[in-house]
Design a protein that fits this description.
120 residues; alpha/beta; 2,3-Dihydroxybiphenyl 1,2-Dioxygenase, domain 1; four-stranded mixed beta sheet; 2 helices
């Protein structure tokens, strides 16, 4: 079984696009016409991330400081150090894995959490 796509709620498409494209280096792919706005990004093996401009039922909910203690998406990345440098330069808060592994946690502008792991 493989993940086809991950759907994430966002509140501002331009702000989200800046994070996903400039920080994570993802590329947009074509998106079918739907009854809400959004953006789609292609990953390896045909997997995708779908950003959906919809009201979030989680607005106002407290989130733990460390993303590893929250719902998160783990992604293996080719340019781990480059992404870390871009996040740092942009002032985006990151935390290291509490297990001692090489992994970095960050949140997008809407609080969706990513675990970034260097590709083998």
């Amino acid at each position: 079984m493989n993940i086809a796509h991950i759907g994430l709620l966002v509140s501002d498409l331009e702000r989200a696009a800046a994070f996903y494209e400039q920080m994570l280096g993802l590329q947009r792919i074509e998106r079918p016409q739907l009854n809400f706005d959004g953006l789609w990004y292609g990953l390896d093996a045909g997997q995708q991330i779908h950003l959906m401009l919809l009201d979030s039922p989680y607005t106002g909910c407290d989130k733990p400081d460390h993303g590893g203690r929250d719902n998160h998406i783990a992604m293996q990345v080719e340019d781990f150090d480059g992404i870390r440098q871009r996040l740092d330069a942009a002032g985006i808060t990151t935390t290291q894995s509490k297990s001692g592994r090489t992994a970095l946690f960050c949140r997008d502008p809407d609080g969706n959490t990513f675990e970034l792991i260097p590709a083998s």
